Fold this sequence. Notes:
Blueprint: E1 2-7, H1 11-22, E2 28-31, E3 44-45, E4 55-56, H2 57-70, E5 74-77, E6 80-84, E7 90-94, E8 98-107, E9 111-113, E10 129-130, H3 133-136, E11 144-148, H4 152-161, E12 167-172, H5 181-188, E13 193-197, E14 199-207, E15 210-218, E16 224-228, E17 231-234, E18 238-240, E19 271-273, H6 285-304
Parallel strand pairs: 1-2, 1-8, 2-5, 8-19, 10-17, 11-12, 11-17, 12-13
Antiparallel strand pairs: 3-4, 6-7, 7-8, 9-18, 14-15, 15-16
Amino acid sequence: MYKSVIVGTGPAGLTAAIYLARANMSPLVIEGPEPGGQLTTTTEIENYPGFPEGIMGPELMDNMRKQAERFGVTFFTGWVNEVDLKNRPFKLQVEGKGAIVTETLIISTGASAKYLGIPGEAENVGRGVSTCATCDGFFFRNKELIVVGGGDTALEEANFLTRFASKVTLVHRREELRASKIIQDRARSNPKIEWALNKTPLEVVAGQSGVTGLKVLNNVSGDEEILAANGVFVAIGHHPNTGFLNKQIETDENGYIVTEPGTSMTNISGVFACGDVQDTRYRQAITAAGSGAMAAMDSEKFIDSLEPLLIVK
Length: 313
């Protein structure tokens, strides 16, 4: 019997683990085969407080893990195949470990950015391909960029990137955009944004130093062309990693876990959510870490209210 189990090891999960361990809660952290979250695919991070010279994403996550280990956090690597949240204590079936029972559960499994799935994309992540304008826009000062997408996020990121780039071309496979009118109007009035509509991305083109352009298909003429750019920002959305919950917890229409405003509490007493798995707005390392602290404190307060005292394995 564990007092608390954390599923996920991004900034939210590791921060929750640090807080719980320092509160003598002896948490178990279950991490997937590729632990660390999206920051492990990020190069240099310059907007995380405490690192005036910046820090590499994998290094930041490694430091967080070492800090958690220092306070005695137990880690296990494996997929959570099944959960039973109908009654407390909650039961988790973990590949390679079997059944785990816990009084509280913190879900910090994050959200994964959707990619185009075209040649040259995956191998150039961190070399000019990005899914986060806020994270990486600073590195493209006076460069030409491409944003792929047609929704609110794509146009907002295009607008944001014009703070740094000399030109931003928005590529969308249709003539009509999905973005709201007010956001479209804002983007269309931005002189740094150019439009490449009715064009389907085919391949990210790159050289030894990184991305050099995007090959697209003109859906009207059938011709192929290469749009020159130093970076390609993919903004076609995210999907929260909540499939393993099998719809046992309240989510919004896109699958993000719903939490009580100002807390990490879900609709199930004793289950908490933090980080990108419940954040549809900010999706930053610093906000994820903050929500992880909230989840730990909410979990600790919940445990303190339980009687009798729990025996921890």
